[in-house]
Amino acid sequence: MQIDSAQLDTFAAVIDEGSFDAAARRLRITPSAVSQRIKALESRLGQVLIQRTKPTRSTEAGEALLRLARQVDLLEVEAIAAVKGKVEGLRLPVAVNADSLNGWFLPALLDVPPELVTAFDLRQEDQDHSAELLRNGTVLAAVTADPRPVQGCRVRALGKMRYLSITTPEFAERWLTGRPLAEALATAPMMAFNSKDKLQERLIRKVTRRRLDPPVHSIPASGPFVRAIRLGLGWGMIEEDAVEADLASGRLVEVAPGKHVDVPLYWQHWKLDSAVLDALTAAVLRAAAAGLRSP
Amino acid sequence: MQIDSAQLDTFAAVIDEGSFDAAARRLRITPSAVSQRIKALESRLGQVLIQRTKPTRSTEAGEALLRLARQVDLLEVEAIAAVKGKVEGLRLPVAVNADSLNGWFLPALLDVPPELVTAFDLRQEDQDHSAELLRNGTVLAAVTADPRPVQGCRVRALGKMRYLSITTPEFAERWLTGRPLAEALATAPMMAFNSKDKLQERLIRKVTRRRLDPPVHSIPASGPFVRAIRLGLGWGMIEEDAVEADLASGRLVEVAPGKHVDVPLYWQHWKLDSAVLDALTAAVLRAAAAGLRSP
Questions:
Q1: What is the ipTM of this complex?
Q2: Which of A114, A285, B163, B197 has the fewest CB within 10 Å, making it most exposed?
């Protein structure tokens, strides 16, 4: 072994538990043993690996090692499962962006053979944070709108989510009718998921060729975001499948009919020879083929 | 004035923008002017107010001042609105726990007179983080399961959410029937919102008087959490209103019929003489009376 496995486990425990003392309790060793193992690992690699903050955090140099710890862990659990004929205690950590989690993603989990995995540990994250979680090994895969491969990961195109500009007929009547759209959109209350959600601005630029500064309601949860639009709080971009029936029946209307914003999605996963990761990737690709527009 | 308002605004800008340079750009002054104002404020109060990290953060001592800045800002906007007869650019930041946001809370926003507020800026937060956001003034009110008043805030009881233990008939048939419930729950896949979600454990202890260690799927979004249960991924605690119809029709069943877990909720808000805060509080109390069990 290039790296002492007890030292590696101890390093991961200090990050996971947030302190040297808590890691000592989990590993049932003394805090000074934890401290010695970390110092030995740091001097072996010539790098500081842990920021001694509260809670403790990995340094940038430590991130690759943290990912190594998770990867070795997964390979070990899978090897034991292969020997014993059944998997035990394997929880797969995966990051998923909010709209995918709320939409096409879930059926993929049901499609992974249960003999390969005990449970799933999903994180709802935007692309900025997903990249960090992949880098430090907190998640082994992510659905993200970011096509730039994270170091050590493989990227596959999943397809596109298409968003339409949606509101109620009453809201349209009150805020939009009887004047140019560019003027109406400058004052009509707009929805946003959070301050990073630029979908509505993209629609506005597409339609008006301008930047506008309307009042913005932020509702950072996919279900409530859609519900607030249905209640008439504002207009916003909603994934087409979620509004198809209501557009047909006239319960909802498009703010800019025929205009849309497409968001391509990607599956980023560790490059690792793991049966469960292969099965999850295949299941996610199938769910994406069923639930997304082709890339 | 006890505190120079330009210094106070500059302090809030440095925290909001994340750096001295970005604050300077927003305030259209030089970075050295920003630095001088902060130094003057810190020496006036004899406390370090800003952690010079990336991004900059308020120190504990600075939190009260940050809240003061937000409060003065709100009072100023309201006073200007009273003079001009209309409100401009007033976005109300409010923290709401996930299940409330997904459930009874939204109608309250529609019930605040629109002449008092421009838009709402919701944060979805658990109680730990809500307390911090109230303390440092990032939000002016919060729906939380924590009854302990945050310093400078008033607490009102809103009512209780009642959670039932829910799964599909197929899942119950496969995992639960034909053996004692305590034994079945030790192996049947369980859902959790995240690692802080103890609702399922509370139900297990109530029913079995024991702690069990079943496989746990984490899905940190209210809508997808419920949908995963409907798809048969695991059993979990769902708010009673969301499953009433499906329990009646037999599409869903209770894991432990007749057993429930109640979560009392509270409205914590700044003690401040603000028309919009009063109106929001009244609207939230009405929505809670309509959507929650009485306290």
A1: 0.89
A2: A114
